[in-house]
Structure prediction request, 278 residues.
Amino acid sequence: MASNTYYHSLIIILTYLATTYGLGEVIYAVNAGGDAHIDVYGVRYEKDPLTGKVGTASDFGKQLVIGRVPPGDQVLYQTERYHHSTFGYEIPLKGDGDYVLVLKFSEVYFNALDQKVFDVVMNNDITVVPALDIFGRVGRGVAHDEYVPFTILSNTLIVGGQESPLRSSKVKVDFVKGYKDNPKVNAIFVIKGRLDDVPKLPPLPREEDLDSDVEEPRPSANLPNSNNQNNKQSQTMKRRPSGPRTPDPYALDDTSSMLPVFVAIGAAIPILFCLCKL
Prediction:
């Protein structure tokens, strides 16, 4: 019994290591507005710590199938937390080094541009995502991730060349209320590592790719065929019936040309008969 438990635990550990291979060290992950979840990469998202404290949890997105996301991870983009004012999460840090903040979003309500727009700010100081319009980025019901690489050095937050002193071993990430509806977030995770260590969403299909899905006529292939068909039709119209011509029975009848001869002979016979009697 003990050996079975040991092997079972070993399989779980190996599976976890296999699925998380290539990721940096995950130091924080939250499924905003939802329950705990382990994604396809082995990242464990904790239940939202703001439940019952700040803002509103919503699973309105569960009526949609979210694009760009495998079926097992739909919930990360279907549940969300929003608030009628600025709100945020405190993220623990693990010393100096490079980090990546990944913010997951999906617009599940609005169907137009410029309806929900808000900023994301780190450490109450540095705007890391300005004027985010999720629908404007990807449309409705489609996953969108924001990747924010940052560095911690001597209690200083460094993002995109901007510096901000830290007051503790945590950094606050705020979703700032603007003039266009309420700020929101679907899920968050942070790794200690580089941007290359973060799994990315598949790219959005380009318009030309969508257009290529519609079958179009191929001039190089169809044009010769159409010319051949036209040539065949013209040849059919000009073509003479195959085989020898049917003889014209009137053309072969010489009776009409011999009629005067027969008349002359018929007239000469009585004359000859009379002369013979003399």
User: Anything to note?
Assistant: Helices lie at 2-20, 75-78, 134-138, 207-212, 219-238, 249-252, 255-277. The first strand starts at residue 25 and ends at 31. The mean pLDDT is 80. DSSP finds seven helices and 15 strands in the chain.
